[in-house]
Design goal:
The complex is a heterodimer of chains A (504) and B (82). Chain A is an alpha/beta fold. In chain A, 26% of the residues lie in helices and 22% in strands. The chains are: A alpha/beta (504), B alpha+beta (82).
Chain lengths: 504, 82
């Protein structure tokens, strides 16, 4: 059948209808876990496999707060390989290039199912090429929380990397040799997995403040190291110097200002890309100049937001995951730098999630189409290169959703007639800002009206599409195969698009 | 054998090598070949024709350069070869 964004969905699968269709259904909650006995302390990950009888076909989950520096998932994979456990279902919140041990486990069918929100590197390559036995399920950050709390994604054992754990099994990420800040993506796993194992390299007597409540923790494994702090910090922390990027950032900030979105109660979220960081700088300039202070910033928090909190430009920061060490430090030191769980961030069924309170969000795109649908999941050849993360969650929640991108990247125009894969539906995307002009979603007559006399270069999206083609030439159309290797789940669990096998 | 080169392997640029030979051959290695192979080839062919150049092996190592970049790199490489 054809779903609400005109994409094919196989019969029997729940097809995406619209971004607010979730309101027609009620929140479903399974019982939170009940711990049977005292928290056990162990010295090896291997021993947890005996203790909890981890066997063929079970579901293991992980979080990605240590990002490319994570060593916990690698170590668990080693145990699986040694024991040759088959048919496992893996549910890491994201998959990074350093998770190389997963590749062999997929090839040997030790892992045959995967749920995740974002993946790149070798794992995404072998899955794109069709080596995962069952379809990959890609959900959003908020959708993952919904899926776990509803029992749809049932986790047998959660292996949660945790920088510091105390003798009662409470855990925090705010300090220690592998400090990574908030642990927001793991909270659903902590509360709903049948068994919870914290993996740490630092034990203290007693934590006064903790994000992981020991009441949910069955076992703590103490290892030499849970990660390499170099890899924990996400790559980009500096704003762009590229004149095209700066032009986009400046026009974006000016459009936001012209729309009247910078006011005493405003809140915002941006990605950690170089152009996004430049937009944050320009918005800060506007706030300092007009002496307007906002309500909160959320994210993926970076040092630019920390600076604005310290300058009093925001009252609070809501942080699901610290993106750099300044953010980690601020989360540790500043009470107004608050942790939020993935559910509090973007679960459609959460009572008043943060995403619904955002005035505007600035997001990236691999492709945007003439209907404003956005792809951040695959490249234009169909290779998996990322995923929603919180993209679809905040695009839906925010009052105004802005996509920023150069009109073409290495000759490939970003505006397509149809995106290769729909990650975020066009109905939730309001503005596209490029270096050669801004397009407003025709559904947002209000925004178009407010920008009319702004002096900014406003175009129809098809005009920008034509301008790009005049410069780059018309790219050859790529035919995808018809072999489905995965599904992109919208935040409510419906299928917004399918993922297709690419050639090796 | 005469040889000329121009360009770089930076993103949005291309590195062009032109060598004298007894026949004309065009070798394209492009990050955007799936989308623009034919167009890159046409640009090279037309530029060679305009410059009345024959019997050269042209190698384009392309990182997503636009046509005018490819053309100007090729002209420079040819002039350097002479």
């Amino acid at each position: 059948m054809i779903n609400g964004v005109n994409r094919f969905v196989p019969d029997g699968m729940p097809a995406f209808v619209s971004s607010d269709a979730f309101k027609n259904k009620k929140r479903k909650l399974i019982a939170k876990k009940q711990k049977q006995s005292k928290t056990v302390f162990l010295n090896t990950i291997d021993s947890t496999f005996d203790l909890f009888d981890i066997h063929d076909g079970q579901c293991l989950s992980f979080h990605h707060h240590l990002r490319n520096g994570d060593e916990v998932i690698q170590k668990v994979c080693e145990v699986i390989a040694n024991r040759n456990i088959k048919d496992l279902h893996f549910a890491p919140s994201s998959i990074f290039p350093s998770y190389t041990n997963m590749v062999d486990l997929i090839m040997n069918q030790n892992i045959t199912r995967i749920h995740t929100n974002y993946l790149n590197g070798k794992v995404s390559k072998v899955i794109s090429e069709g080596y995962l036995k069952n379809p990959l399920i890609m959900n959003t950050h908020g959708g993952r929380a919904r899926s776990i709390e509803s029992g749809e994604l049932k986790i047998d054992v959660a292996f949660l990397a945790c920088p510091v754990v105390d003798k009662n099994g409470n855990g925090t990420g705010s300090f220690g040799p592998t400090a990574c800040g908030t642990l927001g993506y793991a909270i659903s796993d902590l509360k709903y997995a049948t068994k919870v194992v914290l993996v740490t390299d630092t034990i203290v007597d007693n934590l006064d403040e903790f994000q992981f409540d020991g009441a949910y923790v069955d076992a703590v494994v103490v290892v030499d190291s849970i990660g390499n702090s170099e890899g924990i910090v996400s790559g980009t922390t500096r704003l762009t110097r590229d004149p095209i990027g700066l032009k986009i950032a400046k026009d974006c900030a000016n459009a936001i200002n012209a729309l009247g979105l910078i006011h005493e109660k405003f809140s915002m979220q941006t990605g950690a890309g170089k152009i996004s960081l430049a937009v944050v700088k320009y918005i800060r300039d506007i706030m300092l100049e007009t002496k307007i202070t906002g309500d909160f910033g959320s994210g993926g928090i970076t040092s630019s937001y920390v600076e604005m909190l310290n300058e009093g430009l925001f009252k609070e920061l809501y942080d699901v995951q610290c993106f750099d060490l300044e953010a980690v430090k601020s989360y540790h030191d500043n009470l107004n730098h608050r942790a939020m769980s993935a559910s509090e961030y973007g679960n459609p069924y959460e009572n008043n999630p943060i995403c619904d309170n955002l005035t505007f969000v600035i997001l990236g795109a691999t492709e945007v189409d003439l209907d404003f649908n956005v792809n951040v999941t695959t490249d234009s050849l169909g290779n998996i290169i990322g995923g929603s993360g919180g993209h679809a969650d905040i695009a839906h929640g925010a009052e105004v959703t802005i996509i920023i991108s150069p009109l073409f990247k290495s000759r490939i125009p970003i505006i397509k007639e149809k995106v290769t894969t729909v990650t975020t539906p066009g109905s939730d995307v309001d503005l596209l800002v490029t270096e050669r002009g801004i397009a407003v979603n025709p559904n947002r007559i209000d925004l178009k009206e407010r920008l009319k006399n702004s002096g900014l270069p406003i175009f129809e999206i098809r005009e920008l599409y034509d301008i790009a083609h005049q410069i780059t030439g018309v790219p050859r159309k790529i035919e995808l195969s018809d072999e489905i290797i995965g599904y992109v789940e919208y935040r409510d669990g419906t299928i917004i698009d399918c993922l297709y096998k690419v050639k090796s | 054998m005469k040889i000329g080169t121009a360009g770089s392997k930076e993103s949005n640029d291309c590195f062009v090598t032109v060598r004298e030979s007894d026949k004309t051959d065009i070798i394209i290695d492009s990050v955007v070949a799936a989308f623009f192979y034919d167009q890159i080839k046409t640009t090279v062919e037309e530029t060679l024709k305009e410059m009345k150049i024959e019997n050269v092996i042209v190698t384009i190592e392309d990182k997503g350069a636009l046509d005018y970049t490819i053309k100007s790199r090729l002209i420079s490489a040819i002039k350097r070869m002479k």
